[in-house]
Amino acid sequence: MTFRGFRVFAAAAVALALGLSLAAQQPPALKRTVVSKTDLAGCTDREAVMVWVEIPVGGAEGRHQHNAEAFVFVIEGTITLESEGATAKATLKAGDYFTYKPGQWHEAANAGTTPAKLAVVFVAEKGKPLTVPVK
């Protein structure tokens, strides 16, 4: 290998290492898709919001709360769940469900080997953010 060839090789190796390092620092992206948003009959300050949540392998929601009652069903995959009031993390799989009261913090993470998919129905306060991060 010539000196010029070595420099090109070394530059490529450094670029690859930097790219892998930056990629390793980025957590997998969570995807939330609002499927439906509907006013509740006879209740002017609330709405029903249906959301599809996908948590990739290694991904986590981040600790958060909702201005809503939340009804969650695990469609696919396995998640670990940490929540206010629980003494330990729970492990939930497809077919399991859980609920949250407004303002109750929680965080779901996917430590499994396949993406986790959740169906969520919120009974939310109109005009307020649906999801609020908790530090």
CATH superfamily: Jelly Rolls
The helix-strand sequence is: HEEEEEEEEEE
Enumerate how many helices there are, as a single number: 1
Shape: elongated
Q: How are the strands of the biggest sheet laid out side by side?
A: 1-2-9-4-7
- CATH class descriptor name: Mainly Beta
Beta-strand content: over 45%
Based on DSSP secondary structure assignment, what is the total number of beta strands? 10
Low-confidence stretches: none
For this structure, the CATH topology is Jelly Rolls
Tally of separate domains: 1
Question: Which terms summarize this structure?
Answer:
135 residues; alpha+beta; Jelly Rolls; five-stranded antiparallel β-sheet; three-stranded antiparallel β-sheet; 10 strands
Describe this entry's structure for a reader.
- With 135 residues, the chain is of the alpha+beta class.
- It has a single domain (31-133), classed as Jelly Rolls (Sandwich), CATH 2.60.120.10.
- Helices cover 17% and strands 49% of the residues.
- It has 1 helix and 10 strands; from the N terminus they run αββββββββββ.
- It has a 5-stranded antiparallel β-sheet with strand order 1-2-9-4-7, with no helix packed on it.
